[in-house]
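Subgroup meeting minutes
Present: P.N., E.W., G.H.
Scribe: E.W.

1. P.N. recapped why we're keeping a running log of single-chain structure predictions: easier to compare across weeks, and new members can see raw inputs and outputs side by side.
2. G.H. added today's entry (385 aa).
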Amino acid sequence: MSYNSDEGVELVTERLRQFFDPVPRFKLEECIGRGANGIVCRLIRDGTRLALKICPFDIRLADGKSWDEDQEEEGKQELVQINNEAEWLRSRDLPDDPLGRTPPGVQPHEMESWIYMDFAGNGNVQSFIRRNRERTEQILPSRLLWRLFLCLARSCLEMAYHDLKVNGQQVNLNQVPLETLQKSPPGALAHEDIGVTNVVLAALTSGAGDSEHTISPVLQLIDFGTAKARDPTDLPTGPQMNVGDIGALMEIMVLQTTPSFGQVKVTVDGKTFETFGHTLHQNRGELIGRGIDADLIDLICLCRACDPKLRPRPADLAIRVRERVLNRGANGVVEETNDHIRWLVSYLVLDADASPSKKRRRTASDEGLRVNESRKRLRIEHDDF
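Output recorded in log:
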């Protein structure tokens, strides 16, 4: 029986249990996802949840290989992708890895590669947007959107400078000023699959000591199976492609829907150019009236410039977005206050409160703030998200 049978996922999961069950500090819980280049299982190690990603076509089942003859090429391709992902990701190194040894009486799994990752249990951007649409029917606050934008910009930085060295020493990007990175040419790595399902929300924190996440979740980019270093002479370059892709993702988060495809001429920072942000620009006036910052719309259009050479470099983008994160205030609008955004994120992410009426939110009358009555999410005909 192969992985592609009706019981395929269960067969693979039970096969993995043979390696985890004999180790008390581990508990393999369940398979939580099937993607283009592997399956992901959730497990617990000493009380901490982790994610395990494997290529199911790479594991030997009890009665032989896990694929049929006609799926052999598909299996080989998935293995290539997960090997590629292991090369780019910092996999969690587990010295007591149950898959690193074969228990007595158990047939070896014969897998070549697998990846352990921190478990992000709060869903992906797609589910976050869908919940906001269904529960609030409002656009997201601009101050929250700027913070999510910064997370994505920092993902671009990580890809652009993941191998940056100074005097032969690997650079810790968390400790290097963004202004320093402006002076270093970015690398060539492109993710090539950035989208609403490949960006996840990490565990919520108090934000203590982290001015960028005091009111917002951390976004993490996943699934590097198709990532590669692009030829720097080809356009778009790796960094240009990544910046364009996060611009497209930000357009979806602003609109709360998938935009229509098209190009439009815009002027940003005194420069006139064509952008793929057609739907965003088309609804510019209405979006601004509903609370979206004009410079946020402009910057997204710039990231989506049809000419890749016009898109901002990762460090320049991060500096520009960070300035808005640090300095953009609520401006007297209750939906932009810290308390409201914290409530909104908790309401959408934690599922702790199915009805907003059951949990008291900060209101305009609490501190004389005004409510933007026109914040209902945009109604776009092309609404197939």
